[in-house]
């Protein structure tokens, strides 16, 4: 008879499944597919995702801790409002911490570290020229990760990571204009790091990250994310997830 997995491994799998559920619902909320006041029925969600109800409930509790949903006594989970200011604040927080990490990295990166950034950026430019958005996104992530690690401030980097998880990955890839923005900003940031200009690095990184939020807000506005019909009613509608 097949033995049960070790408790630690089972706990990790359970946590990953709950986070996957939360990520799926978070994306639907940010994209406007789930709107303020929509009820999130655990049974319906577990059926649509092909999972048990336990990770769905735990995923919803995670979203509640992030204020994406709230739990109404005897009624269930309901979607909170999500406006432009909320989205801007998410990027502002990331930009503020990311800028500080970059400034610290500028004082600590070795010549070899900077050479690594230059290599990543050369590959990034080639990927952008060829239109390979998946590779552009991966190299862009590695660019920022290298800087964040070089700052040698693990708790601050962990905090940034927890903030970044609140925005689904596809939004980082699909922000209109952001790929070109990265191509424009990255070489300038490298130059500022090379001359150890921490103030310039901090300012550039803050503007670079915040511009992504501005692009995303503009994109969602064009799609009618915050139209009058979306925000007209603050009451909860008894709408199940389809």
Helix and strand pattern: HEHHEEHHHHHHHH
Strand order of the largest sheet: 1-3-2
Q: How would the global form be characterised?
A: elongated
Low-confidence stretches: 1-12, 229-242
The biggest beta sheet is recorded as: 3 strands, antiparallel
Any overview of this molecule?
- By secondary structure, the chain is mostly helical.
- The protein has two domains: 7-83 and 226-231, Arc Repressor Mutant, subunit A (Orthogonal Bundle); 84-222, Four Helix Bundle (Hemerythrin (Met), subunit A), CATH 1.20.120.
- Helices cover 71% and strands 4% of the residues.
- It has helices spanning 7-31, 42-49, 53-65, 84-108, 111-130, 133-150, 154-164, 169-174, 178-194, 198-222, 228-231; strands at 39-40, 69-72, 76-79.
- It has a three-stranded antiparallel β-sheet with strand order 1-3-2.
- Helix 9 (178-194) packs antiparallel against helix 10 (198-222).
- The chain is elongated.
- One of its GO terms (molecular function) is DNA binding.
- Keywords: DNA-binding, Transcription, Transcription regulation.
- It comes from Caballeronia novacaledonica.
Structural key phrases:
single chain, 242 residues, mainly alpha, Arc Repressor Mutant, subunit A, Four Helix Bundle (Hemerythrin (Met), subunit A), 2 domains, three-stranded antiparallel beta sheet, 11 helices, 71% helix, disordered C terminus, DNA-binding, DNA binding, DNA-binding transcription factor activity, transcription, WH-like_DNA-bd_sf
């Amino acid at each position: 008879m097949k033995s049960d997995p070790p408790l630690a491994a089972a706990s990790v799998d359970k946590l990953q499944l709950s986070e996957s559920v939360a990520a799926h619902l978070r994306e639907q909320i940010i994209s406007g597919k789930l709107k303020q006041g929509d009820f999130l029925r655990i049974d319906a969600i577990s059926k649509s995702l092909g999972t048990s109800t336990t990770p769905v409930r735990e995923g919803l509790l995670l979203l509640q801790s992030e204020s994406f949903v709230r739990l109404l006594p005897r009624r269930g989970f309901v979607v909170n409002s999500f406006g432009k200011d909320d989205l801007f604040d998410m990027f502002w927080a990331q930009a503020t911490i990311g800028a500080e990490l970059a400034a610290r990295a500028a004082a600590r990166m070795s010549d070899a570290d900077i050479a690594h950034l230059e290599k990543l950026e050369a590959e990034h430019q080639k990927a952008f020229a060829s239109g390979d958005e998946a590779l552009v996104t991966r190299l862009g992530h590695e660019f920022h990760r290298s800087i964040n690690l070089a700052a040698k401030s693990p708790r601050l980097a962990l905090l940034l990571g927890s903030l970044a998880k609140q925005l689904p990955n596809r939004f980082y890839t699909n922000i209109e204009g952001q790929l070109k923005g990265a191509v424009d900003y990255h070489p300038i940031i490298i130059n500022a790091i090379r001359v150890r200009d921490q103030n310039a690095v901090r300012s550039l990184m803050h503007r670079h990250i915040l511009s992504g939020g501005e692009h995303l807000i503009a994109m969602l506005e064009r799609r009618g994310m915050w139209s009058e019909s979306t925000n007209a009613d603050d009451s909860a509608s008894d709408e199940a997830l389809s």
